[in-house]
Structure formats: structure tokens, C-alpha cells
């Protein structure tokens, strides 16, 4: 079998064939056969040799045969191995890069939402897929005050004051019912300890305190920290994003089915699932890639999201990315997303 040291990893030859198959499949979405790879690549291998290696790749789960086709297509596992180990990135050309930089620098001096829209349209234009950009959040959100009120069915209303005037009402689902007095003590603790501190750091401190000192805490203190942790979770529902070029997804055969498109467009319209997916990219240091079923949302099994966070003063304030079929040209899309995130951050930093 074409593996390295029986580790379950493909051999060097198998890697080259997998790379060639994925790149060829990205062109038209048609299953790729050994004869096609022999004719149209620089592998210098016979169809029989390629066929044998493809059989090994299929055994390893990197490619699969759709229906009764003689050709093979990449699986999610195959794509994951490709983007993690095989992809050779192709950054955008100088002309595209200068145009992108110029557009974002211009809009960086205007409204943040306009900048997000410009970046979204640019991502869509450069990739011929859907571009998505969250509207920048305030780089520094200061915790001012919180009040907790008991509701029925193990719920608590948190009234959170951020910065000078922003008020957020959040309904928390907790593990038991709390009395007015218990909630008052929890609010007093947070207000006395953390008023005026950065909201994100307050949550980190609260979570750290629970994990570090749980053994020495009394039950009331543990409950207080648990309530605080829920109250200070990032409010995904308040995040806005700008989506451009979603209709371009209709140009891809595998996404052109009416039912597939309807479900996908429902995700875009309802926003919540996509926002949670984007929110998972906030903690990433660089580009984050969700391929098909890796997103955890069945409706997005046929698409991939390539995303990256962007920063102001080294603090993440938003996420942007490209949504397209799993057979997208990752070697082009990854650097486009990465560079755009850097340029959006630079444009926002220039406003400071």
C-alpha cells in the first residue's frame, strides 16, 4: 500500500497524485480518472500506476467513487490533508493586491460598515464566491455594571452596561433557580471587582478564578462565578455581517440544486448559525478553514468557509472569509483571505 511506514499517511507519490486530483477536480467538479491524471499532469506515471495509488488513497479515505463513476472525488478527509500538508499557496498578483489595498484604505477613513461591505465585495470579486465580513466591534468594550433579576424556569435576566451608555439585556439559562438576594450578591461582586475593566478580560479572569480556586470556594462563590461566566459570554446575536456574491454560488453545479440553495440561503438569512461559525474563528491566530461537515451544520456539508480574524491594536474586532464549494481553489483563496484580513486591520488602525 502507498503509505509511509504503515502510519496511515500517504506516501510521497500518493501525495502528489492526491494534490493533482484535487486541483483537477476544482476546475469543473467532475470525477477524475487515472487516465485524465496521466494525460493532463506532470506526474510522468502510467494510468495503471496512478490507478493503483488511487485505490490506496481510497482505502485511506482520502478519495471516494461517486455512484458507479470510474473517476474519484476528494473526501473531506482528503481536503483536510490537502490544506494542512499539501497546498502550495498562490497569493494574488500585484495588480489585484494594489487595487484591494487602495479600496480598503479609501474606505478605512469612512464608516466601519462601509469598509466591511467593500471588503466583502472585494473577497467575492477576487474569488468568484461569496464574501462575508463582520462589522468591526468596538476594540475596547469596558464593563461598567451588571444587574441580575430572577425569571421562571431556571432563567436569569442580566442587564449589562458596557462603555458609557450601551445596555444589553441577556437571558441566561442556569442550572437552578436563584433568589433575589443571591443574584444581588453576584452582581455586587462583579461590580466591585471589575467595573471599568475590559469586558473580555473580565470574563477571562472570572473563568480563570473558577478553574484555579474551585477547591477553596464556597458554594455561593462558585454559583456567582458560573452566573458571571454566562452573562459575559460574547454576544453573537449582536454581531452584524455583510455578505456579498452569494448568488455566485449558483454557478457551481454541486450547489445549483434548488433545495440545496434554499437551505443555504436560509442560513444566510437567519444569520445565527453562520455567526456562530464565524465566532469560532475569532480565537484563531490566522486563517481558519471549515470544510463541509467540519462546520457542524448539516446544511453546510457541501461548502467550505475560509476565514480569518482582523485586528485593531492587536485586538481582534471582527472576522472575514469566503464561502464556496468544498472544491474551491484553496491555494488562491487562503492567501486572499489572509491578506484581506491584514489590510482591513491596517485600514481600521489608520483611523486611530
User: Per DSSP, what share of the residues sits in E-state strands of 2 or more residues?
Assistant: 15-25%
Question: Could you list the spans in which at least 5 consecutive residues all have pLDDT below 50?
Answer: none
Number of helical segments with 4 or more residues: 12
- Give the strand line-up of the largest sheet: 7-3-10-9-8
What does this structure look like?
- This protein folds into three domains: 12-86, Arc Repressor Mutant, subunit A (Orthogonal Bundle); 94-137 and 239-349, Beta-Lactamase (2-Layer Sandwich); 143-236, 2-Layer Sandwich (Enolase-like, domain 1), CATH 3.30.390.
- Helix content is 46%, strand content 18%.
- It has helices at 12-28, 34-40, 47-59, 76-86, 94-107, 112-127, 180-194, 199-213, 219-231, 258-270, 272-279, 330-349, and strands at 63-64, 73-74, 130-134, 143-151, 155-162, 166-173, 241-244, 288-291, 303-312, 315-325.
- The strands form three sheets. It has a five-stranded antiparallel sheet, sandwiched between helices.
- Strand 4 (143-151) and strand 5 form a beta hairpin.
- The longest helix is centred in the C-terminal third of the chain and has 20 residues, at 330-349.
Amino acid at each position: 500500500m502507498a503509505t509511509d511506514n504503515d502510519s496511515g499517511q500517504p506516501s510521497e507519490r500518493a501525495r502528489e497524485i492526491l494534490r493533482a486530483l484535487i486541483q483537477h477536480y476544482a476546475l469543473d467538479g467532475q470525477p477524475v480518472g487515472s487516465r485524465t491524471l496521466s494525460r493532463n499532469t506532470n506526474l510522468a506515471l502510467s494510468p495503471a500506476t496512478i490507478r493503483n495509488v488511487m485505490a490506496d488513497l481510497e482505502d485511506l479515505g482520502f478519495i471516494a467513487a461517486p455512484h458507479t463513476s470510474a473517476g474519484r472525488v476528494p473526501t473531506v478527509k482528503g481536503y483536510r490533508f490537502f490544506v494542512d500538508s499539501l497546498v502550495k499557496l498562490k497569493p494574488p498578483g500585484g495588480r489585484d493586491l494594489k487595487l484591494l489595498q487602495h479600496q480598503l484604505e479609501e474606505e478605512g477613513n469612512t464608516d466601519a460598515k462601509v469598509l466591511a461591505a467593500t471588503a466583502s465585495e472585494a473577497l467575492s470579486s477576487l474569488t468568484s464566491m461569496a464574501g462575508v465580513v463582520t462589522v468591526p466591534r468596538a476594540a475596547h468594550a469596558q464593563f461598567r455594571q451588571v444587574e441580575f433579576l430572577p425569571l421562571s424556569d431556571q432563567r436569569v435576566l442580566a442587564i449589562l452596561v458596557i462603555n458609557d451608555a450601551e445596555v444589553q439585556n441577556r437571558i441566561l439559562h442556569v442550572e437552578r433557580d436563584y433568589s433575589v438576594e443571591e443574584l444581588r450578591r453576584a452582581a455586587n461582586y462583579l461590580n466591585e471587582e471589575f467595573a471599568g475593566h475590559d469586558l473580555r478580560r473580565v470574563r477571562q479572569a472570572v473563568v480563570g478564578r473558577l478553574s484555579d480556586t474551585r477547591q477553596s470556594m464556597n458554594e455561593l462563590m462558585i454559583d456567582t462565578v458560573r452566573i458571571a461566566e454566562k452573562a459575559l459570554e460574547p454576544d453573537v446575536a449582536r454581531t452584524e455581517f455583510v455578505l456579498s456574491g452569494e448568488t455566485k454560488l449558483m454557478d457551481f453545479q454541486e450547489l445549483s440544486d434548488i433545495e440545496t440553495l434554499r437551505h443555504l440561503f436560509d442560513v444566510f438569512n437567519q444569520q445565527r448559525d453562520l455567526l456562530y461559525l464565524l465566532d469560532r474563528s475569532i480565537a484563531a491566530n490566522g486563517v481558519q478553514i471549515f470544510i463541509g461537515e467540519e462546520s457542524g451544520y448539516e446544511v453546510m456539508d457541501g461548502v467550505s468557509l475560509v476565514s480569518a480574524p482582523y485586528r485593531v491594536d492587536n485586538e481582534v474586532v471582527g472576522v472575514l472569509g469566503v464561502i464556496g464549494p468544498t472544491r474551491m481553489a484553496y491555494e488562491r483563496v487562503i492567501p486572499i483571505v489572509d491578506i484581506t484580513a491584514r489590510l482591513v486591520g491596517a485600514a481600521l488602525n489608520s483611523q486611530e
